[in-house]
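We emphasize that the prediction below concerns an isolated chain of 202 residues; any contacts that depend on oligomerization or on bound cofactors are therefore not represented. The input was used exactly as deposited, without trimming of termini.
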Amino acid sequence: MKIVGVGIAPGMMTEKAIKTIKQTKNILGSKRAIKIAEKHIPPDSNCKTIQNYRKLNQQPPNTAILSTGDPMLSGLGYLDGEVINGISSLQYACAKLKIKQTEVIPISFHGRKRNYNKLQKQLEINNKIFLITDPDLNIQKLTQKIKQTNTPSQIIILNKLGYPDEKITKGTTQNPPKPTTKLYSILIKPTLNHTQNQPKNK
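Result of the prediction step, given as a token string:
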């Protein structure tokens, strides 16, 4: 079985991912993943939408599981089998904003388990945070949690990255931007320099 990263939008797949899909007859993926990869899926393949994620490891060896973005960034990379990488939202966002990936800490806020404590600890040491979100995230609550760290921060909402209607909006903890779509991620960038916290020499 192969877990194939299809990227975050059409045109974000590697040559290896495209070749793998074209050579595979048994394909599974979410509706969005299939839509991204559709022009590379053979017309005679058995391509189906995933109905039960718990049974994915029970698929035949000649199956390709499509994973949006990169499988190892909060994707399906936990499954048994070879992982073929794709372009992730983190990679794309860092390129767009000209921020080094090594300066960013990714945290998943996708689903019910949202580790605000981890988020706050990273902000307190002045780290940039990339949040992988879902439509249920409460932006007001997120902003309040950031304010509790006393770390002035820029908040950047990354809407529909890679799509023609992509939109990037910037704000602050005092005036946070709002997502314009259900498909978005967030980059939180502390604006306080380390030197501001250090005592002056007398």
